[in-house]
Amino acid sequence: MIRLDQVIKTYPGNVTAVDNVSLEIKKGETIVFVGTSGCGKTTTLKLINRLIELTSGTITLDGKDITSMDSYSLRRTIGYVIQYVGLFPHFTIGRNVGVVPELLGWDKEKTHERTNKLLTMVGLEPDEFATRFPNELSGGQQQRVGVARALAADPDVILMDEPFGALDPITRETLQDELSPLWNELDKTVVFVTHDIFEAVKVGDRIAVMDAGKILQVGKPAEVIKNPANDRVTSFFSQHRFQLELLTTRIDSIIEKTDEKIPENKKTPKLHPHDSLIDAMDALKRSDDQNVPVFDTKNNLQGIVTRASVTREISKLIEQ
Amino acid sequence: MVEFVIQMYPEILERTVEHVYLVAIAVGAAAFIAIPTGILLTRSEKLSGPVMGVASVIQTIPSLALLGLMIPIFGIGVGAALVALFLYALLPILRNTFTGINGVDKAIIEAGRGMGMTDKQLLVKVQLPLAVPVIMAGVRTSTVICVGIATLVGLIGAGGLGIPIFQGIAMVRSDLILAGAIPAALLALLLDFILGKAEIKLTPGRKGMQQ
Q1: How confident is the model at residue A264 (pLDDT cuts 50, 70, 90)?
Q2: How many angstroms separate the CA atoms of A278 and A129, rounded?
Q3: Helix B2-43 crosses helix B128-149 at what angle (to 10 degrees)?
Q4: What pLDDT, in 10s, does the model give residues B109-118?
Q5: N or C: which end of chain B has fewer CB within 10 A?
Q6: Does the ipTM surpass 0.90?
Q7: Contact B108/A86, CB-based, under 8 Å?
């Protein structure tokens, strides 16, 4: 889908911002560039939509070299979300969402329909919000609009530059929980930049740890956390390694089959096979029982997770 | 008193009309030149320094001196007055256009560019509309300055409300001085008020731009 091949970006004065990065990003995946500020993650992101032009190497999108098309048309086919949102203050929310369709010359009715659909998808009631102005919305609501705007012309690729970085922790978590499933369901290829490793493992199908313009390691969050490629990757996790392991260890290996009938009760905690040990600990803490049922997305019972097996998994992590 | 007002009324009206013409033509021409120039300057950092510098220097020349300087070039009369007023009106509009456009939030510009807007689309759809209040504030400043300076152009034979003021000074008659000064002051307030209303009309999505 997106292919970076020996990509280099240097600035005058011999400053290398991106140093020979090669990476293949698969269709439909969310890849997270994570690293400290100045590691080159944002520059790499902006090379993809040519807000920054690369010095050497090639980037292809669906096999097409991005420098072969004009940069404006390229950007209209790629969604873009930034930290400080950047909604147009003199446009209503509806018109803000419809900016790219407007640039692409969609007719009014089609744009209007699309805008309302997207606002609903990001959890903003169109009747209530479409005619309001950005300054009447909270920061979290504004970034919901920012994401809707990026999705407006139905791009295959969305670039997100610290989209939740300016939000308070609670709003940030709500948006991560609500919006990342949305772009996954829509099968969007998402390139996501953050300095927050917890955010990275939460939203990323794969994470790419960057430092000094290079990618140190790419892989599934659990792999990278368990087997850091070198000391620099390890040092990036610093004292959070144990928490990150809890967060990235899925419960699917400790699900036990059961013949018991699980009574339908909304109040009792439930788990999903993709949930982490942290989720399991949380569910057990809320439960009066010794175990928690696991249901898949279609609400079929997969088995149970017991208090004993969770404790065993945790002690395994401690001993490692 | 009432008699004096009735007696002076036709002349003051005529002088006021002259005054308005001088200000309107000078500020209109200045806006016509300074707004596009200000936009161009935002595209070229090299040019913006020197051009702003020259405009600032003009602004510091005392108004009587500038009027005097105009006489050898344009002779006595309305022409010299208009050029001088025009020069004074340039800087506030130029500076406000420049800062208004440059002052648009960088995140908004980045979002616009990131969505594939061309420079022209960005200017027309985003930067200019957002800069309207600032540009209009420059036009208002220029207008008020020019109403004041236009009271001096009577000295070089260009008419305006300065005429009764200078007559009053020469004849030591405060009623004549006030007959020029009061309408001039009211005119400044009135024009500022009208332009304020125009600014509101001209600002798109104004509700969204209030803090």
Answers
A1: low
A2: 36
A3: 140
A4: 999 999 999 9
A5: C
A6: no
A7: yes
